[in-house]
Amino acid sequence: MPVTPELSAGKAPGEESLAPQQTRIMGRASYFLAWFGGCVSIGTFAMGSSVVGTLNLIQATVAIAIGCFVIGIALALNGAAGYKYGIPFMVQARGAFGFAGTRLPGLVRAVPAIVWYGFQSWIGAGALNMVSTTLFGFDNLIFYFITFQFLQIGLSVMGFQGIKWLENVGSAFILASLAYMFYATVQRYGDELSANLLTMEGSWGLPFWGATMLFLGIYSTMMLNVSDYSREHKKGTGAGLLTTIYAMSILPCTLFMGLIGFMVSEATGTADPIQVFTNAVDNTPLLMATLLFIAFAQVTTNVLNNVVPPTYVLMDVFKMKFRTATILVGLLAFATFPWKLVQPDSAAGLQLFVQTYSAFLGPIFAILVVDYFLIRRRTLDLDKLYDENGPYRGVNVAALIATVVGIVAALSFSSVSWYASLIPAGATYYLLMKHWAPCQRFRQ
């Protein structure tokens, strides 16, 4: 019989592994703050910009709130296996996709993370460059981008020990900064906003539900690999409380950033957050503080959400050590050409990007949830999940077929792709696993 890898008795900074995690380093407050600080995505600003002209201010607010609560439920569901057994996403996926088959969900999860990593690093570097230009007259965005990226790589190699303290310390500053930016936006553009956004009729139909998916879609990647984080949370928190922690930690930042992007784009027509806040804040010291907060927020988001997932994928597929994989992920972010993503006409492109990759992420999410709750009945055999020659070797064709079915359904309803993919993918996987003989060994 294969033997489950030895549970780690302790965890020094940077010593992450794919083995079941016994030492949990995040309590409830720490876990809440980690998600809070890790969800300040400038991409949310772009998503807010993309629904201008479609929704009014009230509809945009409700759409963001609904998206966040759906996220909370989804994170609690798919993070249950990682929370109970201490296993990361790539190990969790072996039961559904097989050892070789996990390369598909791994790739689907890693690519968007690296793209957002590069995008948010460029935003952070732009904020630092604006501070440097204003205070010292030194204007060199490329220099700050390279420097900023290597700084994040250095922080990332510390693993979850570094992430925990970075997120916990930074969360209060992030909240204060976002509240001030929201206030400054309303003060500067209040007249235009009251004239347009509150009186606009908007839509409560398909465009509204499409907007909920846009704000949800930014986090659909994290819904996939939430076990990478839930395995670090100390045991003793029920499913209901976990759902609340997820939803309420994500809601404030998403609401602030989405509405700021929505309102400022309506008033100015620009989707570049650096230019937005340069125009919105008249006081130079406050502007410098705001820009520094923007830069800091990119660090807290990247190290949690955009470094860990592709790092674990590289560790699983190529058997790399954590630090080596982390460095490689940081270098790959240079190749995403983030300077193209912050152009004034990029909001629509980012919207299409979110809709497209959500079409791939939704089916995989549905398959993992169905596999854990309906096929495995919340009981996993860890020995088999770590045995490359055991019943989960190779590829589970049922998961691949279900993924394709979900993708087709999602692309058929691209504006709500994530929602549309769930039932077709989940139902197909369940039926194949229950009634198709080639799936027999994967049911063990």
Write structural notes for this entry:
The protein starts with 27 loop residues before the first helix and ends in a 9-residue tail after the last helix. Helices cover 71% and strands 0% of the residues. Helix 8 packs across helix 15 and helix 15 crosses helix 16. Mean pLDDT is 86; it is low at 1-9. The chain is built from 20 helices and no strands. The chain has helices at residues 28-37, 42-50, 57-78, 80-85, 89-92, 94-97, 103-136, 141-156, 159-196, 206-217, 220-224, 227-230, 239-268, 273-280, 284-318, 322-332, 346-375, 382-385, 397-412, 417-435. It is mainly alpha-helical. The longest helix has 38 residues, at 159-196. It is globular and about 65 Å long.
Explain the layout of strands and helices.
Layout lengths: L27 H10 L4 H9 L6 H22 L1 H6 L3 H4 L1 H4 L5 H34 L4 H16 L2 H38 L9 H12 L2 H5 L2 H4 L8 H30 L4 H8 L3 H35 L3 H11 L13 H30 L6 H4 L11 H16 L4 H19 L9
Helix pairs in contact: 1-9, 1-13, 2-13, 2-17, 3-10, 3-13, 7-8, 7-15, 7-17, 8-15, 8-16, 9-13, 9-15, 15-16, 17-19, 17-20, 19-20
